[in-house]
TrEMBL record:
InterPro entries: GDSL, GDSL_lipolytic_enzyme, SGNH_hydro_sf
Family matches, as PANTHER family: GDSL ESTERASE/LIPASE EXL3, OS06G0351500 PROTEIN
GO molecular function terms listed in the Swiss-Prot or TrEMBL record: hydrolase activity, acting on ester bonds
Name the record gives this protein: GDSL esterase/lipase EXL3
A Pfam family reported for this protein in Swiss-Prot or TrEMBL: Lipase_GDSL
Naturally occurring in which organism (per UniProt): Aegilops tauschii subsp. strangulata (Goatgrass)
The family this protein is said to belong to: Belongs to the 'GDSL' lipolytic enzyme family.
Length: 197
């Protein structure tokens, strides 16, 4: 078991829901933290989780950054085709801070045979959003199954999928479609495989 765990590649991701929902949608966290302080709190939690994985025997850990959450259908201003800039700035702030921490962990733990890398999903997904025609997408601002927060959380089971999901970047108000994920994940592997092996 120890050998299998140590030879696996682990992918972790956190922070997008924390920012989109817990900071921006529900104002309680905004009363406790300004944005830089909240990001610092999230980064600290992410580093602690990543180190727990490492302590349990995981040797190759890839941390996936936050996508451009301001471009998700549920996070755009009502009726707007433009991404919400404050949410994207928050995602970029988190990503820059977690990337520094992942590089620090890699430098410290590499001596012990562990490898930590940061994977940038932000710009890979943003490329799809900014150049949808290049990837054969037709719909950027709406989700195939709806575009409100409730469509992703509560009502998704009652909402039929659109008949042309391949035309959409987003499946629901927050999550990309299988086609979009396939493109982004392929890019992430092409850009980072040499660091994971």
């Amino acid at each position: 078991m120890t050998r299998v765990i140590s030879e696996g590649i682990y992918f972790t991701v956190m922070g997008a829901n924390d920012l989109a929902n817990n900071y921006f949608a529900i104002p309680l966290r905004r009363h406790q933290y300004d944005l830089p302080s909240y990001v610092k709190f999230l980064v600290s939690s992410a580093v602690n989780f990543t180190m727990k994985l490492n302590d349990m025997g995981a040797k190759k850990i890839a941390f996936i950054g936050i996508p451009p959450i301001g471009c998700c259908p549920s996070q755009r201003e009502l009726g707007s085709r433009e991404c919400e800039p404050m949410r994207n700035q928050a995602a970029n702030l988190f990503n820059s801070e977690i990337e520094k921490e992942i590089h620090r962990l890699d430098a410290e733990q590499n001596v012990q045979g562990s490898k930590f890398i940061y994977l940038d999903i932000y710009y890979n997904l943003l490329d799809l959003i900014q150049r949808p025609g290049f990837y054969d997408f037709k719909e950027v601002t709406e989700g195939c199954c709806g575009s409100t927060v409730l469509n992703a959380a509560i009502f998704i089971k009652n909402h039929p999928a659109c008949p042309n999901a391949y035309d959409y970047i987003f499946w629901d108000s927050f999550h990309p479609t299988e086609k979009a994920y396939n493109i982004v994940v392929d890019k992430l592997f092409q850009q980072n495989m040499q660091y994971l092996m």
